[in-house]
Amino acid sequence: MYLITNGQIVTENGILDDFEMLIEEDRIKQIAKKGEIQYPKDIKIINANKGYVTPGFIDIHADYIENVAAPRPTSLMDLNLSLRETEKVLLTHGITTMYHSLSFYKADEFSTNPVRSPENVEKFIDLIHKTHTRKHLIRHRFHARFEIDYFEAVENLKTYINEGKVHLVSFMDHTPGQGQYRNLQIFRKTLKAYKKLTDDEIDEVIKKSREKEKLTLENIKEIADIALEKGIAIASHDDDSEEKLELVKSFGTKISEFPITLDIAQKAKDMGLYTVAGAPNVLLGGSHSGNLSAAEAIEHGTIDILCSDYYPPAILHSIFTLHEKYHHDLAEIFKMATINPAKAVNMDHIIGSIEENKKADIIIIERLDDDFPVITSVLVDGKIISTTNYRI
Fold first, then answer.
1. CA distance 2 to 4
2. In this predicted structure, which of 61-65, 112-116, 188-192, 266-270 has the lowest mean pLDDT?
3. How many CA atoms lie within 13 A of 319 on its CB side?
4. What CATH number did the domain enclosing 105 receive?
């Protein structure tokens, strides 16, 4: 049992000052005005030091674990070690639920990342699944990112879904000339940054990519139907037209990840989809692919969710950047990393907001020198997972 006091409690309806929160077992037991909660004398008191007391961040799209497992193209670390070291990093950035976004790629034009081999993806899926019954720090989930030309992996994906190892499915198409790489000049520039290719060689890459056979709508719908029956959310990736949005909505898509333009983000919202942008985009002032500016889209009210994408610190710092630089309401921006992603992946009945009887996944955010946000306490399932004390 814990009492969190002397903090600013961030709820769905605003920020509460002079309130306290009682945590009993794995739940939020009571939220009340300071002094109103009755508790035993030997209770553990957590002093928030005037910091923000918020739900833990829910990150529904991040491939950070790939970088930990393969820090160099020819260096593959032990995958169990990688998962356990990754969660230690994530909790320091306030991420208490991570949807590890592992890719099912037939061919990756940009890298030779050994993590993306079928055997290593399968090993990671099993390791993530086993965390549910072993000692672990945060909530681990598996986000299956499926490239729609990878026919050979369809049956494996169906098996993983039926075995309860998949928690989010996104369908991707990275063919140059549309989606993320609709601008071929940016595609060329990006590919050259990864590989030493001539213009003629890149022309051949583009040609082969465009000629690849892809899953039919019936194939995709079959996978989606299996997932939906299990209560698993479906996402589309890099939506770039109204026609594509209508298509993905037809097979049960609930989430539009990284819509390419402001107009498409608005269309996705109008169609009732949750829209996702990368928090690094906010910090960098724009997309690394030359697409939608997350800050501009949020200014227009067309983005619901922030994810860390590839840089775990980005969620925390983008929230305060949006508040201080762009003058957005802080409580509303916190929703983009808490209750909104929880709703998108069907977990809002358990986590994502500070409410009585919900799971006590809580983080405390303090400010260094009044400007730099840091995570000083993390609780998951009502247990103190970490505390950090900064010294002078």
1. 6
2. 188-192
3. 26
4. 3.20.20.140
The answer to whether the CB of 277 falls within 8 A of the CB of 297 is yes
349 in a structural domain: no
CA dihedral 318, 324, 329, 335 (to 10 degrees): 20
Cβ 180 vs Cβ 291: under 8 Å: yes
Separation CA 245–CA 283 (nearest Å)? 27
For 135-172, b/e burial (b = at least 16 CB within 10 A) is: ebbbbbbbbbbbbbbbeebbebbeebbeeebbbbbbbb
The 10s digit of each residue's pLDDT in 151-177 is 889 999 999 999 999 999 999 885 544
Higher local confidence (pLDDT), 89 or 152: 89
Give residue 34's domain range: 2-54+354-387
195 burial (CB, 10 Å; 0-12 / 13-18 / 19+) is middle
Strand ordering across the sheet containing 95-104? 57-62, 95-104, 139-147, 168-172, 233-237, 255-257, 274-278, 305-307
Residues across the chain:
392
Largest Cα separation within the chain, whole Å, is: 75
19 backbone dihedrals φ, ψ, rounded to 5°: -115, 160
pTM score: 0.90
